[in-house]
Amino acid sequence: MARRKKIYEGKAKILYEGPEPGTIVQYFKDDATAYNAEKKAVIEGKGALNNRLSEYFMTGLQAIGIPTHFIKRLNMREQLVRQVEIIPLEVIVRNYAAGSMAKRLGLEEGTQLPRPIVEFSYKDDLLGDPLVPEEYIIAFGWASQQDLDDIVSIALRVNDFMSGVMHGVGIRLIDFKIEIGRIWENEFQRLVVADEISPDSCRLWDIETKQRLDKDVFRRDLGNLADAYTEVARRLGVLPAAATHATKPTLIN
User: Fold this and answer.
1) 131: containing domain
2) Residue 26 belongs to a domain with what CATH number?
3) Burial bucket for residue 105 (CB in 10 Å: 0-12, 13-18, 19+)
4) 252 occurs within a structural domain
5) Dist CA 229 CA 56 (whole Å)
């Protein structure tokens, strides 16, 4: 499709004006960043993998009745999504201690939590996306108490779906983050899962070997990031088995 007006460029994606009012074209870049963009690289094929994997997860969520902004994948790197009003929060669901939680609480990474824990961080790169309590969210008007109740319900339903899908292919869902957007229909709002769901936004460990299959591979210099993402895609059936270690992935249409 013809290139349209750029609306926004982030660390991993570019948003363009969509072909119809209320739509956006989301372009997935090959850029990889960590530690609030202090570490950067270009990983060939990463954008195409994340585009296809996010399509896989978003369509799976829609199939079980969880609304998302996803409409359709357009090509290897672009997908058409609904324009939403993003709530300025990252919604984090943790099943096992890892990353910042393990460091904050002095827990060994991989420790199973008593139950899934939902956290919120305020989306602001300059501040390092700080964790915020519900009181802050309500006081500053980012979301209402009803919104938060609905967001937690959505996040836990996403967790159930993602955990089951990943367990079925031998992967443990350690944690993940999502963004939630508002779609307005006359005077009524609907909350939907927005942005993306991909190995960029999840921690994924092989159940048997505990091999990392997510962005920690890049953060911690644990190997080739494209190989890790390709392995996730292969197990989920997004890639043919022959493409397991391809840095230029062959995607199934």
Assistant:
1) 85-206
2) 3.30.200.20
3) exposed
4) no
5) 14
